[in-house]
C-alpha cells in the first residue's frame, strides 16, 4: 500500500510518518517538492505515485499571520485541499485531511459536535472551513479530522514556548479564559491511523481527553518539567493578538470514540509522556 503525505516537514506530518505501519510505502513531500496550491503539480505527483492514501498535513497554520496574508491562507488552506481532492478522485485514492476547532466561534459552553454551526472568527478558521468544503464537494472518499492545541516533536508549539520562557523568566502571565484540549501529535496520529484502518469516512473530532485553559496547561507543563516559575492567570484582553481566538473550543470526541472503542489518553497523561520522552527546546 502506498501513501503520499503532503506538508511532510510539519509537526503533525512527522508524527504521522513515525506511526505509519512499516509495510506502507510512503512518499513524504513538502512545499519544496510539491506546492499543494499548484493544481497541475498536485495532479502530476498523484498520477505518478498512484497512492491508495493521501494524508494532507500541508497548511498555512500561523494563525496571526493569516490575518495579514488572507489570500495565501485561502490558497493553501482552501484551494490546496480542493486540488488534492480532485487528484485523489481521479485515481480513486482516499484523502485524510486535518481541520481545526477554529471553525467554531467559541460561544458554546459544552464540547462542540461535528454538526454544530460553523462560525469562524479569524481568517485561519475561515480558510480551514473553505478547505473542508472544497473536499466535501469534490471527493466522497475522505476523512476530515478536526483537532486542536497540537504539540509534538519537531514543531513550534506551546509546550516548548512555555519551557523556554520558564528558563529565562521568574514570572509568566498565561491566558485563563480560553479553553480547549491540548493534543499530542503522536496520540492523534495513532488514532487517525485506526480510523483509516477501519475505512471510516466523513468528519470527526479527535483530541486528547479532558480540557483546560492555557493557564492550566502552562501550570502542568512547568510542574512536569520540574521548573520554578510563578504563573499568573490573565485575560485574552490583556494579551491582544492579530487574530481573535474562540474562548471555548473543546471538541466532543464521542463520534470517533464509537469507532475506535476508546478515548485518546487524558491531556495530562499525554503531556507527562511527551515531556518524559525528552522534549528539550
Ligand atoms: N498546530 C495546531 O495546533 C493545529 C490545531 C488544529 C489543526 N491543525 C491542523 O493540523 C495540520 C498540521 O498542522 P501542523 O501544526 O503540523 O502545521 P505545520 O507544522 O505548520 O506544518 C504544515 C506544513 O505544510 C507546509 N506548507 C505550507 N504551505 C504549503 C504549500 N503551499 N504546499 C505544501 N506544503 C505547504 C509547511 O511548510 P512551511 O513551514 O515552510 O510553511 C509545513 O511544513 C494542519 O492542517 C493544521 O491546520 C493544527
Beta-strand level of the residues, as a percent range? 15-25%
Distance between the termini: 36 Å
* CATH architecture term: 3-Layer(aba) Sandwich
Query: Which value, in Å, is the CA radius of gyration?
Result: 18 Å
Order of helices and strands: EHEHEHHEHEEHEEEHEEHEHH
Write down the overall geometry: globular
**Main beta-sheet annotation:** 6 strands, parallel
Number of helices: 10
Record the strand order, biggest sheet: 2-1-3-4-5-10
Task: Please report the total strand number as a whole number.
Answer: 12
**What low-confidence regions span 5 or more consecutive residues with pLDDT below 50?**
none
Q: What is the typical, i.e. mean, pLDDT?
A: 96
What is the CATH topology assignment?
Rossmann fold
Listed once per kind, the bound small molecules are:
NADP nicotinamide-adenine-dinucleotide phosphate
- The helicity comes to 40-55%
Could you name the CATH class? Alpha Beta
CATH superfamily: NAD(P)-binding Rossmann-like Domain
The SS-based structural class is alpha/beta
Gist?
This protein has 281 residues and is of the alpha/beta class.
What does this structure look like?
Helix 1 (11-19) links the parallel strand 1 (2-6) and strand 2. This protein has ten helices and twelve strands. The strands form four sheets. It has a six-stranded parallel beta sheet, with helices on both faces. It has a two-stranded parallel ribbon with strand order 6-9. It has a single domain (2-157, 182-210, 248-265), classed as 3-Layer(aba) Sandwich (Rossmann fold), CATH 3.40.50. Helix 1 (11-19) crosses helix 7 (185-197). It is α/β, with parallel strands linked by helices. The model has no long low-confidence stretch (mean pLDDT 96).
